[in-house]
Specification:
Helix content is 48%, strand content 17%. It has 18 helices and 16 strands. Bound molecules: 6-O-phosphono-beta-D-fructofuranose (F6P). The site of 6-O-phosphono-beta-D-fructofuranose has 12 residues, from loops.
């Protein structure tokens, strides 16, 4: 059901990565560009439409320079950037948010080695607390009476409790873009840290998730640590179909598509578009393709795997090592199966949005196989951008599975042979079945808009019973 429009009280969005990032142009002037990442893609247009203040970290040197000028208004956003000294920011972002909480929420912690809760980690935890406190202070300063405050993601887990204490007039909600760790995983954290984390979130009027599974994980963890269950809501993000259509028709995207067409010719295309993130399961995706070529020789030279995967969080050793493994595996598979005039895998690691859109327009099969993922917007962007009735092969562990699974070929992301079979099934599907499935998938994606998603969060912040 499409919800009715919420009347918009003053709106404050709070997230680590903001909607704008800054760079110097040739004359040395600071210029804002639209920030990257799923959060901004899905939330940005709706916030720009209704208006509001976005509070976010100044991440680069240019961001910090821009922050010194105070609140910046550009591209429909009113941005207040928070400056954290770079070493303190690294402790907050790399050590706690990304190397600890992100891994816990994705069940990816290598428990034989990590986390090591030592003095350095404790220092980083103090940094995490300090950055969260600085964000809370900024909200207190910016927010007018009874404003709506929507806090996003695992970087800012402690704001709810601070705001409940300092500004009980505010209607606040927290939205997690990741899955949420279950009680067994949470036991890795010292009791005081787990309690502060859950208390921080429980201070909001409601906590939101992309999928009911992640909400259930949070509820179970809150029950085990706090002995109570704070209000939750489930509201999957979606893409702005008009925006995707406009962007895919841009001259840049058309030029990338022409280059791609020249490279792949009339071969079938299996595609993936992802950040090089450990949750994305890029290695098993390539192993499955390798098995497809080994067990179904009829596909050799008739298909190309186009992988646009671009670097992410290179401050973490695990991410750098994963990237090297991905590149090495591509070389192995291309050496094993390649023939003159046919490279089985075309790998591109440039972070180039028009290039990604070109791949999404052209695929016959889109592989989205994360081991665990909060949502996965690529599946939705693909459904809107694709022009060949492409088939989605989707992991049951993606948050988008609940909504899009019925219109995809489903896989267990750990099952490499099963994924090879799914690729074969998708490549072999007849024209009528492909067209029917692609249309149904597009319809499912377009049922709700980013503005609906924003309204659902605002409604949750206002209507859930106060948890204070
Ligand atoms: O992996 C997805 C995700 O963790 C989102 O939950 C989050 O919004 C985003 O990545 C953060 O990315 P970054 O570290 O680049 O700001």
């Amino acid at each position: 059901m499409v919800p009715s429009r919420m009347p918009q009280p003053e709106l404050i969005i709070v997230s680590n990565r903001g909607p704008l990032s800054f760079a110097h142009d040739d004359s040395g002037a600071l210029v804002p560009t639209r920030g990257g990442g799923g959060l901004v893609t899905s939330l940005g247009p709706a916030v720009a439409e209704v208006g509001g203040t976005w509070i976010a970290s100044a991440i680069t040197d240019a961001d910090r320079e821009a922050a010194a000028q105070g609140v910046v208004e550009a591209q429909g956003f009113r941005l207040r950037s928070l400056v954290v000294e770079p070493d303190a920011y690294r402790l907050f972002y790399d050590v706690v948010a990304n190397a600890t909480l992100w891994f816990l929420h994705h069940n990816l912690m290598d428990l034989a080695r990590r986390p090591r809760i030592d003095r350095r980690w404790r220092e980083a935890w103090e940094g995490y607390r300090a950055v969260n406190a600085a964000f809370a202070e900024a909200v207190v300063e910016e927010a007018g009476d009874s404003a709506t405050v929507l806090v996003h993601d695992y970087h800012l887990s402690l704001l709810g409790a601070a705001l409940a204490e300092k500004r009980p007039d505010l209607a606040t909600a927290h939205f997690h873009h990741t899955p949420f760790v279950e009680p067994t995983g949470l036991r890795v954290l010292p009791d005081d840290v787990a309690t502060e984390l859950l208390d921080g979130l429980a201070g909001h009027r409601a906590c939101g998730f992309h999928s009911a599974r992640w909400a259930a994980g949070f509820e179970a963890s809150a029950r085990s640590v706090l002995d109570r269950v704070p209000p939750t809501f489930v509201a999957p993000a979606t893409v702005d179909a008009d925006e995707v259509t406009r962007a895919k028709e841009s001259p840049d995207a058309a030029q990338r598509l022409a280059a791609l067409d020249a490279a792949v010719g009339d071969r079938m295309v299996i595609a993936r578009v992802d950040r090089i993130e450990l949750s994305k399961n890029i290695l098993r995706g390539f192993h499955a393709y390798d098995e497809l070529l080994a067990t179904r020789p009829e596909w050799r030279e008739r298909v190309v795997f186009v992988a646009r995967v671009y670097p992410s969080r290179e401050g973490l050793a695990e991410y750098l090592a994963y990237r090297q493994e991905v590149e090495a595996l591509v070389d192995v598979i291309n050496d094993r199966w390649g023939r003159p005039g046919w490279a089985p895998i075309l790998l591109d690691t440039a972070d180039d949005f028009p290039g990604s859109l070109a791949v999404l327009r052209r695929y016959d099969v889109l592989l989205v196989n994360p081991v665990r993922d909060g949502l996965n917007l690529v599946a939705s962007e693909g459904a809107v951008a694709n022009e060949r009735d492409g088939v989605l092969v989707l992991s049951s562990e993606a948050g988008s599975w609940a909504e899009l699974g019925p219109f995809a070929v489903g896989i267990n992301p750990f099952d490499v042979s099963g994924t090879a079979e799914a690729l074969d099934e998708a490549l072999s599907m007849d024209r009528a079945a492909r067209a029917g499935q692609a249309a149904a998938l597009r319809q499912a994606v377009c049922r709700r808009t980013p503005r609906d998603w924003l309204d659902e969060q605002v409604r949750a912040a206002h209507t859930a019973p106060p948890a204070r």
